[in-house]
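Tokens for chain A. Residues wanted.
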């Protein structure tokens, strides 16, 4: 028997890339590859990349440069670039970094096995098509191996909203929803293999329309025995339909956590971002969600320094944040992306943008702290994921997605338990099991 070949995948960017990396590993598993945690002993290295901001894209080239020595030592080593940088830059990647053997976009990675074969003959392989076929159906079935208690499941991909700052419609393509029956089959398979919590993924997940609405899909998943928790991300404020809002109040498996990016609080900037909602309409959506589920934890994304953002516009973002009170948030300095409409517009002074980002993050951190600290004394559900750093300790996630650790814990990974929160640390909560 020949020893299996080793595959090292490094994943950048969003949760969908995490899901894609898992599927790519399965696709190459059919070619005899097993995953390794170290690039040094790999026969193939795949970087699954992100193009959302300039820094993310540049990281890929510096990482590739580091593999030069490795490739010199091991001429048979294959190096591939997958994901959104692959889609956006295609052949240019091989020109800029000739050690790259393979470039594959997010919509064509089901063809990886054939591409890998091509690289074995010394040829380069490039595929950045948007094929008609359903890549997930073409992929080899998952081996029935056991897996951890939480999983991502892509239900929708791409975006038709064309926010003026964003590369996603170009790298992931237009909006496509997977048929509900295939999602349910995949979900049941995950549950059979030990999964207790599924996070439904989509760049515009609440625009899901694979024969039913996202809320209807959630209710179908609610019927799957053994599946205990459902989450979804990322949503657009304009697609928060009534049935989805209502499900937050009525579906016990749907967790009280919603990631709902707003990006900015100034209507002038929202208009220039082509967001097609206002600060007010966003706040009304939040109000309706909180009416359905008062304890829901709200998360968001923010961009500061978008072209032509003034101090007054920025203040409107701070005002909106104060009104919402976020439990967690992701904030970024605007990054010019080639080919997007905002790239051509007058840019904000970078130092001013840095200063705004600092002020924005100070406010968000303070809110996050307050929301986390307010969990002390409360009873929450915790899904345990793994042992903690200390003997006998287990770590899991609360319903609200806070990391929670429990000392002298009688539970194992995959167990769901009621926990009383006793203290709030830097990035996590400590709790005790409730009998
Ligand atoms: N610059 C900075 N942040 C961006 N995002 C998307 N495009 C850009 C950009 N060009 C942020 C948005 C989005 C998150 C995934 O990344 O906040 O919601
Ligand atoms: Fe990055 Fe967006 Fe691509 Fe995800 S979809 S990898 S966030 S560019």
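Reply:
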């Amino acid at each position: 028997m020949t020893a299996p070949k080793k595959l090292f995948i490094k994943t950048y960017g969003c949760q969908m890339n995490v899901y894609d990396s898992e599927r790519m590993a399965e696709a190459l598993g059919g070619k005899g590859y097993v995953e390794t945690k170290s690039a040094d002993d790999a026969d193939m290295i795949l970087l699954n990349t992100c193009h959302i901001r300039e820094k993310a894209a540049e990281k890929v080239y510096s990482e590739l440069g580091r593999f030069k020595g490795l490739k010199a030592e091991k001429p048979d080593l294959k190096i591939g670039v997958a994901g959104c940088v692959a889609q956006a830059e295609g052949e240019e990647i091989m020109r800029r970094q000739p050690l790259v053997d393979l470039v594959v976009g997010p919509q064509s990675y089901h063809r990886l096995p054939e591409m890998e074969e091509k690289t074995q003959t010394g040829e380069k392989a490039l595929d950045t098509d948007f094929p008609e076929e359903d890549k997930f159906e073409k992929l080899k079935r998952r081996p029935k191996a056991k897996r951890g208690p939480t999983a991502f499941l892509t239900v929708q991909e791409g975006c038709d909203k064309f926010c003026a700052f964003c590369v996603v419609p170009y790298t992931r393509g237009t909006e496509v929803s997977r048929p509900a029956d295939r999602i349910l089959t995949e979900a049941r398979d995950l549950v059979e293999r030990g999964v207790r919590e599924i996070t439904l993924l989509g760049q515009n997940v609440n625009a899901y329309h694979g024969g039913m609405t996202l809320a209807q899909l959630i209710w179908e998943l609610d019927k799957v025995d053994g599946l205990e928790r459902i989450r979804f991300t990322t949503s657009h404020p304009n697609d928060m339909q009534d049935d989805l809002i209502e499900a937050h109040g009525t579906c016990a498996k749907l967790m009280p956590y919603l990631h709902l990016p707003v990006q900015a609080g100034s209507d002038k900037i929202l208009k220039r971002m082509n967001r097609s909602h206002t600060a007010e309409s966003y706040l009304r959506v939040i109000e309706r969600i909180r009416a359905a589920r008062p304890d829901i934890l709200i998360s968001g994304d923010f961009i500061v320094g978008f072209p032509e953002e003034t101090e007054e516009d920025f203040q409107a973002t701070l005002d909106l944040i104060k009104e919402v009170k976020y439990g967690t948030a992701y904030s970024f300095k605007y990054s010019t992306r080639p080919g997007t409409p905002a790239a051509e517009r007058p840019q904000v002074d970078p130092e001013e943008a840095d200063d705004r980002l600092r002020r924005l993050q100070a406010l968000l951190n303070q809110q996050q702290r307050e929301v986390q600290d307010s969990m002390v004394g409360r009873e929450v559900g915790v899904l345990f994921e793994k042992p903690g750093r200390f003997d006998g300790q287990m770590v899991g996630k609360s319903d609200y997605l806070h990391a929670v650790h429990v000392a002298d814990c009688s539970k194992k990974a995959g167990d769901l338990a009621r926990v009383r929160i006793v203290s709030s640390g830097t990035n996590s909560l400590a709790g005790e099991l409730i009998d």
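The chain has three domains: 5-127, 142-373, 379-433. The chain has a mean pLDDT of 96.
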